[in-house]
Specification:
The protein is an alpha+beta fold. The protein has a domain of about 35 residues. The chain contains one helix and two strands. A two-stranded antiparallel ribbon has the order 1-2. The two termini are about 25 Å apart.
Length: about 70
């Protein structure tokens, strides 16, 4: 069971997202984030190593989790 901790002030978090194609022909990686209320969700989805549809698959994963 997780321990719960309360705080008198909110934590401010700033983030950035960067991706790099490397030596591949296309970048199949995807990332996304969503903030609702005081919560945030960050998702990183690795591509399929250059296989067909890898970019589509990684974007579906991010969209499914964020939505």
């Amino acid at each position: 069971m997780a321990n719960e901790v309360s705080a008198d002030r909110a934590l401010e978090l700033k983030s950035a997202q960067v991706t790099h194609i490397g030596d591949r022909q296309s970048n199949q990686d995807a990332q996304g984030s969503a903030q609702r209320g005081g919560l945030a969700c960050y998702v990183v989805s690795d591509g399929a190593g250059g296989h067909a549809g890898g970019e589509i698959a990684s974007n579906i994963v991010v969209k499914a989790i964020i939505d």
